[in-house]
C-alpha cells in the first residue's frame, strides 16, 4: 500500500528529474476527456463509440446481422473519422518528433477546436440530437480521439494511452506480485482506470439528465487547460520534452 501511494503521488506531482515531467497528469486529464466523450457518443449518438474502436468493430458486426439499436453506418463513420484523426496525429508526431511539449500542445489545440465545433453544433439545437448533429459529433469527436490516441503513442508514457484500458488492466493483473511480477507503476495504472471511470460517470450523469452541451463544454474546458498547461511548462525546453530513450 505504501508503494502504491508513493507511485500515485509521483504520478500526480512528478519531480523535476522524472523523464516524463508533467506528462502523466496531463495525460490523465485527457483520459477523463475520453470518458466524457464516449459517454456522449454511446448514450446520445446511437450506441456508437468515438474513442473505443474495439467496441465499434464489434458493434459493426452486430449491426450487420440486424441487432437492434445499432447502426452500421454510425460505426463505419466513427471508424473512418478515427482513422483520419490517427493519420493526422501521426503526421504531427513526425513533425514534432523531437519535442513532446510542442506535440501535446499542438494536438490538444486541434482537439479544442474540434470539440468547440461539437459544442456549437449541439447548442444550435439546444441539445437535441438530430441526424445532422449526430453525425457532426461522431465525425469531429472521432477525429479528435484518433488524433489523441496517435499522439499518446508518440509521447510514449507507459500505461497512459488515454483512450483504451485493456492493456493497462492486463498489466495491472499480469505484472502484479501475486502473478510473480515486479508490479511496475501500479499507482499510474490505477489512476488511469479511475480517470476513465470518472469521465464516464460524470458524462453519463450529465447526458442522461439532458445536459449534452454541458458535457461537451466540460471536455472542451479540460482540453483547453491541457493545451495551455503544456505550452507554459514546455516553453523553456525542459528535459522531459525530449523523446523517451
TrEMBL record:
The keyword Magnesium does not apply. Keywords: Membrane, Transmembrane, Transmembrane helix. The chain crosses the membrane at residues 26-45, 57-90, 102-123, 129-147, 190-208, 214-233. This is YoaK family protein. It comes from Streptomyces lutosisoli.
